[in-house]
Amino acid sequence: MSRPKQKRKIITPPKFMGYKPFGFYGEESEPVILVLEELESIRLMDYENLTQSEAAGIMEVSRPTLTRIYDSARQKLAAAFTEARTIRIEGGSVFFDKDWYHCLYCNSTFSNPIKENQPDICPVCGGNKMDHLNNSLNHQAQ
Amino acid sequence: MEATLSTVFARSEYFAVWDTETNDIRFESNPFKKLDEHVGDKVLGFLSDYKVSRVIAGSFGTLVQNRAQELNIQMIVFDQGDNKLTDILDLLRHSSNLSGTPKRKN
To answer: B68 — contact with chain A (CB < 8 Å)?
Structure first.
C-alpha cells in the first residue's frame, strides 16, 4: 500500500476557478485540471520569484517534491496553452494556514486573524453572507 | 481620494491611514516601495506605528501574509477593477457603523 500523500500548505486562496481559451473555435477538448498545490507552486516560484528551497519551505514539502509539483504544473499549463484547452483549478492535497472568508456581497476576501472568533459581517461592506474558503476549498480538494 | 487601490500591497505608492475614531485620513508615502527584498516586512513595521488593525489591497505577498498574521492584522483582498479610495472608504464607513466597534483601518 502506498504511503498517504502529505498535505501541502497553501498561503493564498485562488481568486478564480480557471481559464478558458479565447479566440479558439474548434471542438472543446477535455479540460486540464490544475490542482491547488500546483497553482501555488507557480505563484511562489514564477510570480513571487522565490527559490525552490524557499517555496518548498513555505509549502512544507521537500525540495524534490516541490520540483515534481512545479514540473507537473508547467506541463499542464503548456498542454493547455498549446492545445487550447480550458484550465480548471480544483482538487489537490492541501491545507490553509490562515482563516480566509469570501464576502458574497462585495466579493472581497479577508483573513480572520483571531481564529477563535468567527466573523459575522464582512469588514468592507458589512454584508452577512460569506463563504469560509478553508472549508469550501478543503472540501473541493478532497 | 480618486486614487485607485494598489494591486500589490507592499509596492503601494501611498498608504491612506484612516482613523475610525476621529474619521481622519492621513496619507503616507511608502518609503520602501523600491526596495528589492523584505519590503512587506518593513511596510508592516512602518504601519504598525499607526496601530493599523486592517489592511486592504489587491493582493498580498506570501511573506507579508505571514508577518500580518503574527501582528494580528487583518488582510482584505479587494480586487473589483475600478477600486477608488473614496468608494472603498464609503463601504468601510458603512460597515463600521454596522459593527458598532470601530477600529483603525488602512
So the answer is: yes
Looking at the complex, report in whole angstroms how far the Cα of residue A31 sits from the nearest Cα belonging to chain B.
26
> Which amino acid is present at A81?
F
Cβ-contact A40, A11 below 8 angstroms: yes
DSSP annotation of B14 reads E
Examine residue A39 and state whether it is found in any structural domain, yes or no.
Answer: yes
Whether residue A36 is found in the same domain as residue A90: yes
DSSP codes of every residue in A14-51 = -S-SEE--SS--S---PPEEE-HHHHHHHIIIIIS---
pTM higher than 0.90: no
Q: Domain range for residue A83?
A: 8-12+31-95
Alpha carbon of B90 to those of A105, A119, A126, B61: distances in Å? 15, 20, 11, 26
From chain A, the residues in CB contact with B55 under 8 A are none
pLDDT digit string (tens) for A28-87?
889 999 999 999 999 999 998 899 999 999 999 999 999 999 999 999 999 999 999 999
Q: Which fold has domain B9-93?
A: Nucleotidyltransferase; domain 5 (3.30.420)
How far apart are the CA of A108 and the nearest CA of chain B, in angstroms?
Answer: 5
